Amino acid sequence: MREPLRELLANHIASLPADKRARSWMGFDAKLSQALGAAGYLGLTVPRRYGGQERGAYARFVVAEELLNAGAPVAAHWIADRQSAQLILHFGTEEQRQTYLPGICRGETYFCIGMSEPGAGSDLASVRTRAEPTEKGWLLNGQKIWTTFAQHDQYMIALVRTSGTSADRQKGLSQFIVDLAAPGVTVRPIVDLTGDAHFAEVFFGNVELAPNALIGKEGAGWDQVTAELAFERSGPERIFSSIVLLDCWIAHLRTRTSLDRSSVALLGRLTAELAALRAMSLSVTSRLVEGESPVIEASLVKDLGTAFEQSIPLLITDDLGRDPDQPLSPELVRTLAFVTQIAPSYSLRGGTREILRGIIARGLGLR
Q1: Angle at the Cα of 60 (from 58 to 61), degrees rounded to 5?
Q2: For residue 22, which of 352, 350, 340, 361 has the smallest C-alpha distance?
Q3: CA-to-CA distance for 141 and 129, rounded, in angstroms?
Q4: Tell me, what's the pLDDT at 125?
Q5: What is the dihedral of CA 345, 351, 353, 354, to 10 degrees?
Q6: Which of 13, 274, 362, 367 is 20 to 30 A from residue 77's alpha carbon, by CA?
Q7: Which residues are catalytic?
Q8: What is the pLDDT of residue 302?
């Protein structure tokens, strides 16, 4: 599986410089996603009757690992393949499975997730976006923020309130499939420090939803989104976000006429941390294979993995600073600059560090 995938990626991204590949699952390339779908690398855990490959979670881990290590721009299909397909498969109706899963598996149907809201951050239980029942279905009003690539995607799975108020916390929450081209939906990209715009804010003004837009049961949204986040927080993207920069630095080390002990020690340290985190991520995958919902374990991987990813640009900068006269390739400089700028966001996406540690503390009985 690895070798044919590497060949496919070489044909598609061979000309991409490292600073572009460093964006990886923040890089949007619909043609690559469709090529991956046509080659059978998407929908790996989805049954064949819905267009999937009917393989296991380990196969998907291998594919995700190869894509991220290569720095492939996979944002187009990433969220849909990683979690939206699983959510629809496990909680959706047969009509929803038939409608959306084949397109996801082909790399042609793209989803974003609408969880965070202004003033709520990662406190999902306090969402205020609301869907009211009508004779025709539901009427949606509210706002979502930090929604990845909503400006490019066709659909959003939104966590909204269908009863009660934000004071009711987890009660009264539901999930809906929202067509982002529907009247009343406004998407505004958010330009970040690097000049990219992979986040967006989304506004809903009297958006009419059909009855079949509801995923699962009304009011069951909290349990569904909790299970969904285990897929988001446990994968290899939580440890490989800075891997292209790490590879660039290692390539630079090979050009040095001599290596000091500090550089060698740092390389050993980062390699050991990466190996340990990868083993932890695989362990969470094994729990998913067994049909469990490893929320606490996935939160641990995400928290520790984020810290590792964020440390890489800082540690590499310090290492390079010890020998300021050593010539650096422009590609390494650009890649280091990009990852340094984007790394602070690693601890925001998929749940902030504070929220994750609260989940872990509750799981350990500490709060």
Answers
A1: 60
A2: 340
A3: 6
A4: 66
A5: 130
A6: 274
A7: 232
A8: 87
Evaluate whether 38 touches 162 at the Cβ level (below 8 Å).
Answer: no
Average pLDDT over residues 333-339: 95
What domains are there in the chain, each with its CATH number? Answer: 2-109 (1.10.540.10), 113-220 (2.40.110.10), 235-363 (1.20.140.10)
Cβ proximity of 206 and 137 under 8 Å? no
Cβ neighbour number for residue 100 with a 10 Å cutoff: 23
The secondary structure of the chain in percent helix, strand, coil, rounded to multiples of 5, reads 55, 15, 35
DSSP notation for 9-54: HHHHHTT--HHHHTTGGG---HHHHHHHHHTT-SSTTS-GGGT---
Q: Are 47 and 1 in contact (CB under 8 A)?
A: no
Tokens representing 238 are 């939580």
State the number of CA atoms in the 13 A half-sphere of 363 facing the CB: 14
Burial (0-12, 13-18, 19+ Cβ within 10 Å), 136: exposed
Whole-structure pTM value: 0.87
Are the C-beta atoms of 185 and 139 separated by less than 8 Å? no
Segment (H or E) for 234: helix 221-234
d(C-alpha 219, C-alpha 214), whole Å: 10
Q: For residue 152, is pLDDT > 90?
A: yes
